[in-house]
Amino acid sequence: MAKKNKKQALGRGLSALLDDPEREISSASDVNFDQVVGNVIDLETDKIEVNPYQPRTHFNEEAIEELAESIKALGIIQPVTVRKLGRNQYQLVSGERRYRAAKSLDFDSIPAFVRIANDQEMLEMALVENIQRRDLDPIEVALSYQRLIDEIQLTQNQLSERVGKKRSTIANYMRLLKLDPVVQTGMRDGFLSMGHGRALINVEESEKQLEIYEKIIAQSLSVRDTELLVQKIKKGQSTEKVKASQPIFYDVATEDLKNYFNTSVAVKGNEKGKGSIQFPFNSQKELNGIIKKIKRED
Question: What is the CATH number that goes with domain 14-117?
């Protein structure tokens, strides 16, 4: 027997409106549109299909299992978002990890926020929602930006407004797509940080990129080490003496903190994991902004 979600969705009665064949809701002019669209309803999981526009191409099964355990104990705290395709047909806009976890628990239903959107709007919502997540790797972000530009026909300035990022930030991500596919895969798998990728972009030849990539992995080179190595290669100098100054995970942490706090961050440490984090700021306002983010205040 299928398990029931412990934390039932609000507006359970609203789902009956969606099942009424005489009152099909497909546009803002339909009867009961305002009662259903924009509300959270209890939606049967077998009526939901996954999002074909999902920017994320890899789902960590272990993370899904951990989420399932949390949902099993506490229920689904944040509803998924779906768009209505037709009677009893829905498509995920966001929340596929929650949806997969609920399915693994054999939940009959899941709380869902209902929207009506065409394919273009659907793609844009899915891409923008995913870009806002902090656990996407740099290549996933870059590919999402590229799709918004190619398929939604946005300029980088328009894209900057949509996602709330500086145009220069968007350009830096998209330049990563010029890297050799092997290097891109290394970034997606977490072997390289975005800083490493940005340094490698300055090397045009794929063979040279791969040569540096192998040295980064073998010697755990930092972003600074990689930049120096790139400079040496471009000048035709020997690269044998380049050594790692600190473990690579510090560079990954630096990039994560830069993206989260939207400011320069310096992370330094030794191989035992002992070190320090520095946040430079230019005004009291910037300092207060950093403090608010640390405290997670709005």
Answer: 3.90.1530.10
pTM: 0.50
Q: Which residues, 6 or more positions from 31, have their beta carbon under 8 angstroms from its beta carbon?
A: 23, 25
User: Taking the domains of the chain in order of start, what are their residue ranges?
Assistant: 14-117, 179-245, 254-295
- What amino acid positions are annotated as catalytic residues? 96
Is residue 55 pLDDT above 70, yes or no? Answer: no
Our CA angle for 10, 82, 113, nearest 5°, is: 25
Structure tokens at 22: 């005489």
Would you call 191 helix, strand, or coil by DSSP? coil
Over residues 149-183, the pLDDT tens digits come to: 887 778 888 888 878 888 888 899 999 999 999 99
